[in-house]
Amino acid sequence: MPTPATIRKLTPADLPAALRLSRAAGWNQTPDDWRRAMELAPEGCFARMQADRFAGTVTTCTFGDVGWVGMMLVDESCRRQGHGKALMQHALQHLDANNVTSVWLDATELGRPLYELLGFSAVGAITRFAGRFSTKREPAADASGRQVGPLHQAATSQLLAFDARMVGVERAHLLHTHCNRADKPVVVLQSADASITGYCSHRPGRLAAQIGPAAARTEAELLALLHCVLPEQAGDVFVDVADKMPEVSAWLESHGITPARRFTRMCRGDVARGLPPATSAWLSSGPEKG
Ligand SMILES: CC(C)(COP(=O)(O)OP(=O)(O)OC[C@H]1O[C@@H](n2cnc3c(N)ncnc32)[C@H](O)[C@@H]1OP(=O)(O)O)[C@@H](O)C(=O)NCCC(=O)NCCS
Question: For tag attachment on the chain, is the N or C end more exposed, with fewer CB atoms within 10 Å?
């Protein structure tokens, strides 16, 4: 009789095994990404074990009553044996127990059939643009007096409030992982009266720098931020853009950053919760966190 498979909490000791899975799948995560996922939800990240074998992972994180699922990975040699389904059911039970009313994820083609089976529906699509920015830095101010520059610590609470308005949920714990970084990756767009009207962050990746999260009132304002952030990147970048942003997509393509893959944004539960207002412009912080 084979030993029954089990699910347990993912811990920092699992980092090498977890990283092996994300690398084998060709994903961009670094050890810091896995560490951050576990810090954001120490009780909400799980490993599937088949005897001593590390068969798969899933992570969750919550923003009030909105939950996100990510890092759904099953070792290639263990697929189509029910491990992915068991992991997702476990993650959903955990989120249900934490009063989450809508669960979101960005699905790959491999993941989508499984998520449909478990009650998720497609809500939109995200295109990953990839490449190296091809133009020199452009001026940080424009004719309207808007300024793009580094986030000053004192403005962090203003940024958090702005993000909540633009994205529709309060994401302080996620954003603090960017705002508190020593390399100060966050730039903000400020109007003449110093109020924040947009921001953009980025982080290193295994294959390319992941640009985002970012939010702004309009696509034009998001582009003003990208004009500042992209020329600073030495190598390739990934930018995950919702299909509703044709101006941003066209601008990236005209600067050598082109569509590389697609994700389906899916939701289970109350779709009105966690859906960014149609009027805002934003970039995902990566498929594992939305
Ligand atoms: C997606 C993934 C986690 C699924 O894990 P898994 O352990 O193979 O999934 P399960 O065996 O639990 O699948 C349960 C059911 O989901 C459906 N399903 C799962 N993968 C499927 C696929 N590739 N095509 C069609 N249906 C699929 C089937 O109904 C399956 O039941 P069956 O095998 O009896 O037909 C795995 O393919 C993987 O790690 N892929 C690479 C990383 C990735 O893309 N992850 C998803 C991120 S959003």
Answer: N
